């Protein structure tokens, strides 16, 4: 467990991978955002065509922003501009793409990245000064527990690098504890919150309670 004295309470990030189109998806996300602290929402195509993804984002971005969360678009700069998103996420683990995206859009937009699975790759990405690095992959939360390699990378990064990181939790809401204990500034949840619209609000409440418990145990 991460026990640094300068531990900062992590905040939640939601990833829309399992969210359906239309009002069903909007209702689930609305319930989640209204249930407790959510710092940002990363919207990703999840197999949608560019036009379908833009329609999906146009429907959700204003709502996300109304709840005070940052709306971040993954891998589609045109969509991000058209829907007036708050940020861009580069998921391919490619340094050149990250460098280009930083040059074009930072600091006007939040720019973060994922796909850097080796330490030297992550450090090279960090030299581009993104707003965050994300350890994990969209749709990768297929197990109840968080991925051990993602947890290890997040704990290592949080200990030595000032740039914030996000670590992906697992399919079960209790995986929030594993992720929070790394010391990462943000815990990303996807299926754990959004796979079942009927429980989305309750899962955000539970995730924040787990994070609070971790923060209290570190402070004790």
TrEMBL record:
GO terms for cellular component: cytoplasm. Pfam families: TMP-TENI. The gene is thiE. GO terms for molecular function: thiamine-phosphate diphosphorylase activity. SUPFAM superfamilies: Thiamin phosphate synthase. It comes from the Bacteria. It comes from Aureimonas glaciei. Keywords: Thiamine biosynthesis. Residues 12-193 form the Thiamine phosphate synthase/TenI domain. GO terms for biological process: thiamine biosynthetic process. This is Thiamine phosphate synthase. Pathway: Cofactor biosynthesis; thiamine diphosphate biosynthesis.
């Amino acid at each position: 467990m991460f026990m640094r004295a300068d531990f900062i309470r992590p905040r939640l990030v939601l990833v829309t991978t399992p969210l359906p189109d239309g009002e069903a998806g909007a209702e689930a996300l609305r319930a989640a955002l209204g249930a407790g602290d959510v710092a940002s929402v990363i919207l990703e195509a999840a197999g949608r065509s560019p036009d379908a993804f833009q329609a999906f984002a146009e429907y959700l971005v204003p709502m996300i922003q109304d709840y005070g969360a940052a709306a971040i678009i993954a891998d589609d700069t045109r969509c991000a501009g058209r829907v007036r998103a708050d940020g861009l996420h580069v998921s391919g683990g490619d340094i050149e793409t990250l460098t280009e995206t930083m040059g074009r859009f930072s600091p006007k937009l939040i720019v973060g990245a994922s796909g850097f699975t080796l330490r030297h790759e992550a450090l090279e990405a960090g030299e581009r000064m993104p707003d965050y690095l994300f350890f994990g992959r969209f749709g990768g939360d297929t197990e109840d527990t968080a991925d051990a390699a993602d947890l290890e990378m997040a704990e290592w990064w949080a200990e030595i690098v000032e740039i914030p990181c996000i670590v992906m939790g697992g399919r079960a809401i209790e995986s929030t504890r594993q992720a929070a204990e790394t010391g990462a500034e943000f815990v990303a949840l996807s299926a754990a919150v959004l796979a079942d619209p009927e429980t989305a609000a309750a899962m955000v409440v539970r995730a924040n309670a787990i994070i609070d418990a971790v923060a209290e145990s570190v402070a004790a």
